TrEMBL record:
Pfam families: LRR_1, LRR_14, LRRNT_2
Major location (coarse): membrane
InterPro entries, per the entry: Leu-rich_rpt (IPR001611), Leu-rich_rpt_typical-subtyp (IPR003591), LRR_dom_sf (IPR032675), LRR_N_plant-typ (IPR013210), LRR_R13L4/SHOC2-like (IPR055414), RLP23-like (IPR046956)
Keywords: Cell membrane, Glycoprotein, Leucine-rich repeat, Membrane, Receptor, Repeat, Signal, Transmembrane, Transmembrane helix
Family as reported in the entry's similarity comment: Belongs to the RLP family.
Protein name: Uncharacterized protein
Subcellular location: Cell membrane
Domain Disease resistance R13L4/SHOC-2-like LRR: 121-303
Membrane topology: Single-pass type I membrane protein
Limits of the Leucine-rich repeat-containing N-terminal plant-type domain: 39-76
Record's signal peptide: 1-31
Length: 468
């Protein structure tokens, strides 16, 4: 019943990089330059506009008599007047498949479509181009994009492009950020062209079918500056040649979720600088490798929704930088070690929907940064440890559908940040502690299907945030 989403967070150590990339030249560029824009560049932008479909008139300001540096989505250099950036991402994201018709209508009215005119080649100083979340479903990625030599940032994600990825994108030697993710009609039989992107730091090919691009991992790992690699849903699977790749010394974020791996690729353990690993939603089998404990900088580890069928290795408990750990729905067995108290930086622990047994260790109270603790749908027994009252940052506590007994500890009154408390479907007894009334932030409180008795404390009625 936990209300937190299972989106794997980005590591905190990467935030400065992610803040930098989309605004690569905002330190020297701005939209309100004192200089008028270059006439030839204005004409190029107007040609570009004339071939677009713009149902919501997002580009209404793009008119012949205006200063193009003042136009929506256009950023000029504040000393030369050259167009440096085009930020034309759709304002709304693609709705969920179950979204209401009105939500879809609003989305389609907000997106740009049509054709992309090669007049953009006149923008010789263009360093950033963002066309993400639009609807270019009738066209391929233009080959002339590979001639935009000044580009450092290119975001074409979720823009519904189709067909083969043009290999001459590999000519963009200055490119630092490339996102083609979410265009599931794109295809590529080889990623050899990526090897030309020598400055690339961020690469996202999410949900592109790379099953025919057998060189995908080998090529990307040779990029000398790559920091983040996102390849979820790319139909990748076990390949013996992966084990002989040159390990990347720069990589800090690796997302291989929603693929077809049946075992953890061994080459991952040669990437000692990794900060975030996401291998969720694969077909991983067998025990969790001890080698994860050697990746000492790890802050995020997501192995959820696999078939690991093992206990939690002691090596994981040595990762004192770890902030997010998800082993949800992995058929975990065995107990939770008292060594869990060593995870001094952890904020999110997802250990639900497995076969864990034994007791929740007292050492859980040593996790002073913990915000979410979810061990629901296991076979845990014993009592809720008194030490949970020490978790002053705890926002969600879910131990539902276990075999816990004893009373709800009085110490829960110290959880001033608690929003969700779910102990339903256990064997708890006794009365609700009066300290429940001190949980001023509480929104969801579920103690159903236990053996509790006595009266409900009147103080619960004073919890203004509680959802009934």
């Amino acid at each position: 019943m936990a209300i937190a989403t299972m989106t794997t967070p980005l590591p905190i150590s990467l935030f400065p990089f992610l803040l930098l990339i989309p605004t690569i030249c905002f330190t020297i560029c701005h939209a309100n330059s004192n200089l008028l824009c270059i006439q030839s560049e204005k004409e190029a932008l107007l040609k570009f506009k004339n071939h677009l479909i713009d149902p919501s008139n997002r580009l209404l300001s793009w008119v012949e008599g205006g200063d193009c540096c003042e136009w929506t989505g256009v950023v000029c250099h504040n000393s030369t007047g050259h167009v440096n950036q085009l930020h034309l991402a759709a304002p709304l994201s693609v709705p969920d498949s179950l979204a209401a018709e009105a939500e879809w209508e609003a989305y389609y009215n907000s997106v740009l479509g049509g054709k992309i005119n090669p007049s953009l080649l006149e923008l010789k100083h263009l360093s950033s181009l963002d066309l993400s979340k639009n609807n270019f479903s009738s066209i391929h990625i233009p080959k002339f994009f590979g001639l935009l030599e000044s580009l450092t940032y290119l975001n074409l994600s979720r823009a519904q492009f189709q067909g083969a990825i043009p290999h001459n994108l590999g000519n963009l030697s200055k490119l630092q950020y490339l996102d083609l993710g979410g265009n599931d009609a794109l295809r590529s039989k080889s990623l050899q062209w990526v090897s030309g992107l020598s400055s690339l730091q961020y690469l996202d090919f999410s949900y592109l079918d790379l099953s025919e691009a057998t060189d995908s991992v080998q090529v990307t790992f040779k990029l000398p500056s790559l920091l983040a690699l996102h390849l979820p849903g790319c139909v990748l699977e076990d390949d013996p040649s992966f084990n002989s790749i040159n390990s990347s010394k720069s990589l800090v974020v690796l997302d291989l979720s929603r693929n077809r791996f049946s075992s953890v690729p061994k080459w991952i353990f040669s990437l000692h600088g990794l900060v975030s690993i996401d291998l969720s939603h694969n077909f991983l089998e067998g025990p969790i490798p001890d080698y994860f404990g050697n990746i000492s900088f790890l802050e995020v580890l997501d192995l959820s929704f696999n078939f690991l069928n093992s206990s939690i290795p002691n090596s994981l408990y040595s990762l004192n930088r770890l902030q997010f750990l998800s082993l949800r729905d992995t058929q975990l067995q065995g107990t939770i070690s008292t060594a869990i108290g060593n995870l001094s930086s952890v904020t999110h622990l997802h250990l639900s929907e497995s076969q864990l047994n034994g007791q929740i260790p007292l050492s859980i109270g040593e996790l002073s940064s913990l915000k979410l603790f979810d061990v629901s749908r296991n076979q845990l027994n014993g009592q809720i440890p008194l030490s949970i009252g020490q978790l002053s940052s705890l926002e969600e506590f879910d131990v539902s559908e276990n075999q816990l007994n004893g009373q709800i500890p009085l110490s829960i009154g110290g959880l001033s940040s608690l929003k969700l408390f779910d102990v339903s479907e256990n064997q708890l007894n006794g009365q609700l502690p009066l300290s429940v009334g001190e949980l001023s932030s509480l929104k969801l409180f579920d103690v159903s299907k236990n053996q509790l008795n006595g009266q409900i404390p009147l103080s619960i009625g004073q919890l203004s945030s509680l959802e009934v």
